[in-house]
Amino acid sequence: DVPPKLVAKAVPLPMTVRGHWFLSPRTEYSVAVQTAVKQSDGEYLVSGWSETGDGDALMSRCLSPDYAKEHLAQLQEKAELIAGRM
């Protein structure tokens, strides 16, 4: 049983592509997530993108609570580091 994986990418604002971190040194960010689970045939079952929102709201709607907070925190830290280099 392969656990869902999270995908995130830092992009400069303004940007309208759903499913990415939206970060800028002068603005707030929002996040949308998508899960992908590897099937027995090797293909991935990919969910639709969640609605953008804050991490707690997303976690309660679409992520398994046992590991989602840690993953979301790691993704946020990575995205903020990337945004700082832009």
Automatic annotation (TrEMBL):
Q: Which InterPro entries match?
A: PHYHIP/PHYHIPL
The source's domain of life comes to Eukaryota
Question: What is the recorded name of this protein?
Answer: PHYIP protein
A GO cellular-component term linked to this record = cytoplasm
